C-alpha cells in the first residue's frame, strides 16, 4: 500500500491563551510590535508545542507551528501571513497611505500595474454583496499597512524572531516524534505589494524584497526545516489589475515575481522548499480568478520540490484536469488542497479520498501529498478547522488503501 502523506497550508487556529498574549502586546505609533517579554515567549513556546502535538494526534504527516510566530490578536484574521513581516523589516513606516486609501490605478496593454485593494474586479462586480454584512462575504479587518519610506532590509529583530520560530518548532517536533516540519514565509512578490515611497520603480522595489526575504528562507533551511514560500501574488494579482489584462501581459508581469522567488531561494536546497499558490483566502465570489491552466507553467518554473495549490473549493476543484495535460517534472511533488478554508461544511472523507485519487492516478500516488486549500486559522471556527484536518487524514487513509 502506498501511503498518501498529509499536511496543510500553514495557518492553524490560535489558542485563546496565545491570542490574549498577542493582544496584550500594544503596537506602537510606528506600527511595530514591541519586543516580546520572557513571559510571552513562554506562552508562545507552549502553544507551538501543543499545536504540533495536536497535529500528531490527528495524524498529520508534515506539520508546522500553525504560523503561531506570526502575530494574530483576534480569532478572525485573514492577513497575518503577510502582515507578520512588517515587524521584521527595516525601512517601513506608517504614512496613512496604503492599498486601501490610495487612488485606483489603471493598466494598459504592455503596462501592467496593481490597483488598490478596493478596486479589485471581484470586489467591484459584487460591490453590493461585499458591502452587505449579511451576504456571508468576509475579508477580515482592513487595517492600515506601512509603506516603504527608505531602503528595506531584513532587520536584527527579524533575525531574532525567525530564530525563535525555528527553535520553537524544532523543540515541538522533537517532543512529538517528528523528523521535520515546515515554516511558511512571505514571497518577495507579495512583500512588494505594499506602497513604495522610496524606490520609484516596481522592478527596483521587487529586487529589494528579494534581498529582504533571502535571510529568512536561509534561516529556516539551516534549522533543517522545509521553507514554504507563501505567494498568493502569482495568481491573486490577476484580480488586482484593472482593466483585465491579456494573459500574455500577465504572464510577463508575473514571471518577474517567479524569478524573484528563485533568486531569494538561491542558497536553499530545493529538497527543503515548497511553494504555496492560492487565489486569496477571503470568503467571496472569486469570479475573476485567473485559470490555473494559464499559470501552471509559471508555477513549475519555481525552484521548489513541492507545489501547494487550491484544488478543493468550488471555484478551482475542476482544475485537477490541468495535470492531465501538464507533465510534472521529475522529482517534483504536488500538494493539492482537498479540504477548503472557503466553506464551513466539513468535507466527507470519501470525497477527500476521491479528490486525492484524481491526482494520484495522473502523477502517481508517491508524488501527491494531501493538503488544505489555504490556511484554516483565522478563517473558520477552530472546531471546524480541526474537524477538516481529521477528515483530511481519514480521506488520505481511504485513498491509500485503494491505491
Automatic annotation (TrEMBL):
Please indicate which superkingdom the organism of origin belongs to: Bacteria
Cleavable signal peptide: none
Among CDD domains, the record links this protein to: CIMS_C_terminal_like (cd03311)
Q: Which positions fall inside the Cobalamin-independent methionine synthase MetE C-terminal/archaeal domain?
A: 214-394
A Pfam family this chain is assigned to? Meth_synt_2
- InterPro entries xref list: Met_Synth_C/arc, UROD/MetE-like_sf
What is this protein identified as? Cobalamin-independent methionine synthase II family protein
